[in-house]
Amino acid sequence: MVKLGDWISEGVNMIKDQLWSWVLVMLLYFIIYIVAYSTCFGMFLVPGILMFGTDIIALKQIRGGRVEIGDMFSGFGLILPALGFACIIFLIAIPSMLFLGLPLLFIIPLWMFVPHLIIDRKMGLIDAMKASQNVVMQDYWWFLLMNFVIRFLAGMGAYACYVGLLVTYPLISTALAAAYRDCFGCEGAYSFKTEDMKAARGMQ
User: What does the pLDDT look like over 135-164, one tens digit per residue?
Assistant: First the structure.
């Protein structure tokens, strides 16, 4: 069952819990992203690796770990699956442009958990794609809505002279980490619901 409100709320709480660390991570993210787009090879390869890097950080945080800027480079250790995943998306994106990108919009949600399964369960790319698709298809339209809402909210920071993206863009990784925990299980994972966080602090 899709818990859209809960996952977004937890994603926001994860960002707030270690706000300045996430800001630094996103600052590095966008610097690398901009530099990468100045080269043909970089603009194709690097975005996928950066996505894996932020998901590694979010999965670490949901287990109670600290958000550390150096973990951003952990995605480079998964360069082969990241490149393979980027190639698949790219091959779908090209014909999708003939239809205003709509086919890609409906296909992407099927594989929203692929990075998490590769990172957390050490799955191969194809197995991760199948596992993600099997879960998403159980409640496809809600997952489609979730993907749209999370990315819309994450992009809202662009209206604050793009600087706001440093705060809002991590939501893509944090909210999906909470969703992954509930959909697949994540050993040692914490709840970032507001009431659970208050209870945990009250016990300290």
Answer: 999 999 999 999 999 999 998 887 777 788
Work out the average pLDDT over 70-90.
87
Q: Which two tokens stand for residue 5?
A: 């409100």
Q: How far is CA 28 from CA 2, 14, 17, 58, 134, in A?
A: 32, 19, 19, 16, 34
Asked whether 173 and 53 are in contact (CB, 8 A), the reply is no
Whether residue 52 contacts residue 117, with contact meaning beta carbons closer than 8 Å, is answered with: no
Query: Which residues contact residue 148 at a Cβ distance below 8 angstroms, ignoring those fewer than 6 apart?
Result: none
Containing 46, the helix (H) or strand (E) segment is helix 40-62
Q: Band of the pLDDT at 8, cuts 50, 70, 90?
A: very high
Extract the runs of DSSP E, i.e. beta strands, from the chain: none
**Token pair belonging to 169:** 């863009």
Q: Locate 33 and state its tokens.
A: 């992203």
Q: Which residue has the tokens 């899709």?
A: 2
**Domain ranges, ordered by start, for the chain:** 4-195
